[in-house]
Each structure stands twice: as C-alpha cells, then as structure tokens.
Amino acid sequence: MGASGQMRQVLSAPPKSRPPLCAGRRGKHPMQLFHNASMRRLFAALCLGSALAAPAFATPPVAAPARPVPAIPATPLRTPQPGQVQPLAPGTRPAPKIPTLTLTPAIPQVHQVTYLSNGFIEVAHAVITVTPQERPNLRPLVAQVAAAVLAARPTLSEVDLSVYDRGSYAGFGGPLPLLTASVPRERLGAFLAWTTQRTPFDRVWVNPGNLPVYLQPDRVRETVPVPVAVSSQETALERQARKQGGLLGGLLYRSKFRYVPLAALTFDDAPHPMYEPLLLDMLRRSGVKATFFVIGRNAAAYPYFIRDMTQQGHEVGNHTYHHVRLPPLPLNEAVNEMRWASDIVQKLTGKPVRYFRPPGGEYTPQTLQAARSLGLNTVFWTDDPGDFQNPGDAVLESRLHRNLRPGGVVLLHDNAPEMLNVLQGFLRVARQEGYALTTVGGLPK
Predict the structure, then answer these.
(1) Dist. CA 429–CA 420, nearest whole Å
(2) Which residue intervals define the domain NodB homology in the entry (predicted)?
(3) Residue 377 neighbours by CB distance under 10 Å
C-alpha cells in the first residue's frame, strides 16, 4: 500500500506505533432465504443441468468418505518484527460496512459470509473455521457451505471459500487458510464432484504446510496525496529518475513522455477472495488492462485469481511476500520477501516478474539495490487518491480525476470497497478525456 502522493525514503527508525485500524462490520442485511425441506432437494435444485452434476445426498454432502486433507499444524505466531505495526494515516475513516449473509439452518463452522456487487455481478466470501478433529471432513463441509450460500442468495454469481484453523484464525492477514476455493454458480456441480474425489477442480487450493514462517503484515495507510520532502540523502540516480521520468537504474516514477495521454493503472495487495473476481469482471467489461502488485502469500493461497489475471492480459508484479515494510528488516530478510513473492508469481504465470512496489513506498538505497539484483524494477506512482482512507466516493472520484496526468501511474487497492464504487466512472471519464489506461509495462520508458 502507498504512504503518500509520492513515495518516501526511510533512513531512520519507524515512527511510534498505534493500534492498527480494524474495519467495521455491518449488521445483518435483509436477504431472501430458502428454507428447503432437506439438503437433498437443495443440491438437486442447484445442480440441475450441470454438465458434471453431483450425486444426490441423503444428508448434507457426506455421502462418501472423503480423503483427509493433509494435516497442517497450527501456524506459530512469530514475534512482530520492526515495522510491522503501523500508525494510522491522518484522516483515515472507518471502512464502509460490508453486507453479511445469514444461513438457515446455520452451519456451525461458518464464521461469516459477506458479499458485494460491482454493479454487474455479486460475489460472496465465506470464512469457515475448523478444529483439528474436523479437518478430515473438509471436503463435505465446503460442499455443504458452497451450496447453502448460493441457495441463500440467488443473485450471487460466485462464492469463494476460505477454511481456517480455528485456533490460529486472525482474519485475512493472519495465518493462511487450510483450504480455499472459488466456485462460480455454473460450476457448482463440478465443485461438488471434486468433494467426492470423482473429478479434478481447477479453482481449489490445499495448504501444503511447507510455506514460509508467518509474519504479521503491515497495515500501511495512505495520507492525503501531497508532495513529501525528499531526504537530503537521496542519491543522484533517484533524483534524476524522479525528475526526468522513464526507467532509470531500475527506478520508475512515471512515463518518460509527459505529453502522451497514456497512464498506468495499478492495484496493490491482490488477490482478495471477494474483491478480485469483482474487479477482474469490471476491467474485462471496460477492456482495460492493469498491473497487479500482489502479496506473495495471497497469491499462494488464491492461485486461481493470479491465473485469471494472466489469462485476461493483466500484468502481475511483486509487493513482497508478507506485505511488510522493508527498511526496518535486516537486508537478508528484505531480500527473502522480494524473492519469495517473485518465485510464487513466476510459478503461477510462467513469466519472470519485472516490477516491484515496496509496501508504503518505503525503501532504502540497499533495498533498491537488492531489488535490482533480483531483476526487479521498483515502481512508484503519481496519482494516489487514498482509497484505503475511505474518504467517501465523491472525494475519491475527485482525487482520481484531478491527479490523472499523461505518463502517470495510478495507485489503487484491490480490496478497498470505495474503489469498486468509483472505478467504472473513472474508467469512463478517462476514456472520454482521451486517456488510454494500460499496464506499467505498457508505458513508454
């Protein structure tokens, strides 16, 4: 995430921390619920016409014993490292409340179901928590939850599932899930077939249990975009790259040409299981390609969204593995953060990673050099409307339009609710004003 309208160089200890902002939650949202006589009729109705229809179940889908998902020990929480607890940005407001869905009858393992719309489709995200004793039955459980969520709200196009260990669950930024899945409504039958081990399903991930040790991610918030004084210790190369634009010494602030009505559209922190399908759908409808700076651990847990990005022609960049600020870390740990993220992205896309954005835009000369040694060009931005400050739709839209400039780099976040509200209008206005939005790789350098 960004820190201000321009990146800032950090050459000293991090500021005194305050508790991170926690997003608010909305009360129960009015909804239409189905009250079926039995789960057999629920599955029969949902799977009717599916090319890979699931067999009828006499009870919630536990008809056949499922192969246990590999046992994964509870992830130990590592002592927070320097830079992991962030002060709130001035002016940050509570996040808009996200509507929630109530299942009837309730499924005890379902922690929460939220849903959102981009104006075209609706997507839900179900968080499921389980005990060690419940892990051998994850497949029938996720089958039951997916079917129940789609039945409870007929307007949903997709439900995404994240199954966590109940003892270590700490929200989206906490230890990774045990299992994730993305289930479009039209593919429910195929997903149910996967839960009985009859056929493969390409939109599911099972935690292998051998991932890097968990680090709590930084919760960096933007400030209102204003110029930030450049440190006197900024190198001559950095000053030149900032002034002239283009790619210079592995640094990119903006395009080399200020008079071509072309700007890069970028999103940090991807992928998120509820927001990503909504954002990708909107970009597809608009015919716009963007660069996603992804967090490595998120890419590992939701690999199908990274494949979706690549298949739709988007560019995937590096935003570290755990989303931690690099300057306070020992250099070898900072290098690992960049290398791990690049490794998982290249594995999923089949392409070398070319672009890197440090969380908060914070760096040192040493981390910039480390990025170059890994073949990464460090990318900053010119247009940071502060979508993670939740300034309100009107303010966010005004900032986007006011700061859009030829050769610029627009910074947004894939998991900011207000971004979804204003993005379509911004894309339309940019087109009307003659701007073409593209990837970072598409900018003249």
Answers:
(1) 15
(2) 261-438
(3) 21
Phi, psi torsion values for 239, nearest 5 degrees: -65, -40
| Cα radius of gyration (the chain) | 22
What's the pLDDT band for 197 if we cut at 50, 70, 90? confident
Stretch (H or E) spanning 345: helix 331-349
Please classify residue 350 by burial: count the beta carbons closer than 10 Å to its beta carbon, then call 0-12 exposed, 13-18 middle and 19+ buried.
exposed
Alpha helices in 353-405 (DSSP H): 365-373, 393-403
Residue 394 CB neighbour total at 10 angstroms: 10
pLDDT of 238: 79
Which sequence spans correspond to the domains of the chain?
A: 39-66+84-206, 236-442
CA of 374: how far to CAs of 14, 228, 342, in Å?
26, 28, 9
**pLDDT score at 220:** 54
Q: Find residue 266's DSSP bridge partners.
A: 291, 411
The dihedral of CA 78, 304, 108, 172: what is its sign?
A: positive
Q: What integer pLDDT is reported at residue 91 of this predicted model? A: 55
Q: Quote the percentage of the chain above a pLDDT of 90.
A: 59
CA distance linking residue 287 with residue 437, whole number of Å: 10
Q: What is the pLDDT of residues 41-92, one digit of tens each?
A: 434 444 433 333 333 333 333 333 444 444 444 443 343 333 333 334 445 6
364 phi and psi angles, rounded to 5 deg? -130, 165
Is pLDDT at 34 greater than 60 in this prediction? Answer: no
CA distances from 50 to 54, 57, 187, 237 (A): 8, 16, 7, 59
Q: What is the pLDDT of residues 295-312, one digit of tens each?
A: 999 999 999 999 999 999
Residue 169 near residue 178 (C-beta atoms within 8 A): no
Catalytic positions are 268, 413
CA dist 382 and 361 (Å) reads: 12
Among residues 213, 212, 222, the alpha carbon closest in space to that of 86 is found at 222
Task: Give the pair of three-digit tokens for residue 127.
Answer: 């968080």
236-442 topology per CATH: TIM Barrel (3.20.20)
